[in-house]
Amino acid sequence: MASRWRLKASIPLRNVSSRRVASLTGKSSAQRRQFFFKSFWSQSPSAAEHANWTVDTHGPRRPTKVDEAAQRKLRESKEQEHLVHDESNIGQMDGKPAKHIAVNIDGDPRVLDTVFLRDSCTCPQCMDPHSKQKLFQTSDIPEDLEGSCKTVVDEEKGTSIELEWSSDVKGYGPEHRTRHSIDWLRRALNTEIELRGGVRQDDRVLWDKRKITKDNRWVDYNEYMTQDSTLFDALTHLNQYGLLFLRNVPDSEESVVHLASRIGTLKDTFYGHTWDVRSKLQAENIAYTPQFLGLHMDLLYTSNPPHLQLLHSLRARTPGGASFFSDSFHAAHQLHRQSVGHFRTLCTFPVTYHYHHPTQHYHFTRPIIDLFPYPKYSDPTNLASLIRRVNWSPPFQGPFEARIGSNNATSLRNFVAASHAYEKLLASEENLFEYRLNEGECVVFDNRRVLHARRAFDATKGERWLKGAYVDDDVFFSRLRVLQEAFGGRWVAEGVEREAVK
User: Which of UniProt's keywords are assigned here (predicted)?
Assistant: First the structure.
């Protein structure tokens, strides 16, 4: 974790007073980190108060919209620094062989490393046309690779650059050429790399009760099953909000399979291909009782918990049993504004989850808040953009490791305080969205972001039956990319938050 915070501290503090930043000159990296993570945003003023705010008295102010726009512009200019080089470092840009190539994209001259351009070659010699698999290794590229390029104009395919290599990969003859369209280069250079599969992020919207009530999306079952455009809109919304509802779902145990299969392969677990949520005696899971079930996520005791959970209501004939949901990313954003210390504790403190029964024993340890490992590519003005997923499931929390109780009493007490503060935000009335599923309705939610819970119900006065299924993250994002390429012309992937609830 130390390296993670070190990367973050390297982000330019453009939103902070220049006088304060100048005071850091000559300070150690530890002092700079301490300065950056100082919890000043929780005490900083609103925009209306900026006129009376003095840096010397109150410290740095919260970034304004202008600050955030400047940060985004700065980030965009730096996020491709591993692919693009400053012109001052270029020896040749006149068409002769060189290690770097200058390309004009929409009037903006960009200088690209030839290793990047060669490694990205998709000609039939470099990528199998059918399997789309790479036919050479990056390590095969000569360290002294040089290339030259020319512009190629095609009426159908548009403008491209064609590169000729003076020292190519072994086994490739002098006739080998690499061609990249300007459109491809534009996308490669202008997307924000999340470094999770090399795909672009999609905007995620944080929500509270008020916002999700206004933005909540209902989709008709038949349209979802038969129209790819509807599926694309539905999955895009699901990726942004983490919550989606469907209506007019047929009264069949197979309906949830059909819904999940529209996305891709279902995830098998020890619960089965699908599973039933019904009240029963001596239940091995609290979900199979009529008791109140608090906010949680499923299967955090496994190494790869499911990304999506689907719950189809087949019978809803008992009093009570309403479901409610909470956006853990929004609560984490709120927690950071309240206390950076609490936020950091939940990012680092190990929590054990387990499922221990006679025929199964699952066990996994992870922090409550899991950050992306490359914070440099996220928005430094919005700390929630660093969150990859949240792990919160009190019913399945196991005992702490003995060393934590004996040698780290202070950190354990810090965790209790941080988790208490976070739980209050998660369960606050303003953040909870409650809905009682009717028969023929299905809810789909992001199990790594949206917490779900259930009110108690009276099992003696009717039947309550939900049919459930899981889908993994790779399956979901694969489907979303395919649809995005078909309808939007761009990739999406596991995203970061861009719009916070004010």
Answer: Dioxygenase, Iron, Metal-binding, Oxidoreductase
* 467 half-sphere exposure, CB direction, 13 A CA radius: 21
How far apart CA 41 and CA 225 sit, in angstroms, is 46
Q: Which of the two residues, 227 and 409, has the higher pLDDT score?
A: 227
pLDDT surpassing 90 at residue 502: no
This prediction has a pTM of 0.71
264 Rama sector, left if φ>0, alpha if ψ -120 to 50, beta otherwise = left
The rounded mean pLDDT for the chain is 78
**Token digits of residue 286:** 């609290």
Question: What whole-number distance in Å separates Cα of residue 194 and Cα of residue 184?
Answer: 18
CA angle, corner 473, sides to 467 and 477, nearest 5?
115
Residues of the chain above pLDDT 90, percent: 49
* Positive or negative torsion for Cα 109, 114, 118, 123: positive
CB atoms within 10 A of CB 112: 24
Q: What angle do CA 36, 329, 495 make, to 5 degrees?
A: 90
Per-residue pLDDT band for 47 (boundaries 50, 70, 90) equals very low
In 10 A of CB 72, how many CB atoms?
15
From residue 229, alpha-carbon distances to 95, 199, 262, 425 in Å are 45, 22, 13, 36
Q: CB 7: neighbour CB atoms within 10 A? A: 13
Structure tokens at 262: 């529209």
**What is the rounded distance in angstroms from the CA atom of residue 320 to the CA atom of residue 324?**
12
| Distance separating alpha carbons of residues 165 and 315, to the nearest angstrom | 66
Q: At what angle do helices 340-348 and 409-426 cross, to 10 degrees?
A: 110
Q: CA dist 390 to 285, 366, 450, Å?
A: 22, 10, 9
For the ranges 54-63, 188-197, 219-228, 452-461, which has the lowest average pLDDT?
A: 54-63
- Over residues 97-153, the pLDDT tens digits come to 788 888 887 777 888 899 999 999 999 999 999 888 999 999 999 999 999 888 887
Q: How far apart are CA 483 and CA 236, in angstroms?
A: 9
Measured CA distances, 42 to 13, 54, 197, 330 (Å):
17, 16, 35, 15
The segment with the largest mean pLDDT, out of 100-109, 283-292, 365-374, 405-414, is 365-374
Lookup: tokens for 434 = 């409650």
Q: Phi and psi of 84, rounded to 5°?
A: -110, 140
Between the alpha carbon of residue 353 and those of residues 342, 391, 397, 403, 473, the distances in Å are: 20, 9, 4, 17, 20
Q: Please enumerate in sequence order all residues whose Cβ is within 8 A of that of 71, keeping only pairs 6 or more positions apart, or say none.
A: 14, 15, 63, 379, 380, 381
C-alpha 386/C-alpha 405 separation (Å) is: 29
DSSP state of 384: G
